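Section 5: illustrative case.
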């Protein structure tokens, strides 16, 4: 009978220890997930704002180029420049990812 009491006593101690460790881990994980969610939200907002800005800048450049060349050529030049900028940015990101 005394061994059963010791076993129950130790089980209670272990449950408290592991319970507090588990709570601490859960709090840390929740804090980490909140940080990730906030970063993703900021990234999404940033991408939307950059895309909107790029659209307005591109439209302005096209309007200017249409005064000195045909509209289709102006659209083609601006589209090509945007594609080249996108490719350069992707290459920079891929190179940095391979280094880490």
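Designed sequence:
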């Amino acid at each position: 009978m005394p061994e059963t009491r010791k076993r129950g006593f130790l089980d209670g101690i272990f449950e408290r220890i592991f319970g507090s460790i588990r709570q601490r881990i859960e709090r840390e994980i929740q804090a980490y997930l909140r940080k990730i969610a906030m970063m993703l939200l900021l990234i999404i907002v940033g991408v939307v704002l950059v895309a909107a800005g790029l659209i307005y800048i591109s439209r302005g450049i096209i309007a200017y180029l249409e005064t000195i060349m045909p509209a289709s050529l102006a659209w083609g030049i601006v589209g090509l420049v945007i594609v080249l900028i996108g490719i350069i940015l992707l290459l920079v990101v891929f190179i940095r990812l391979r280094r880490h």
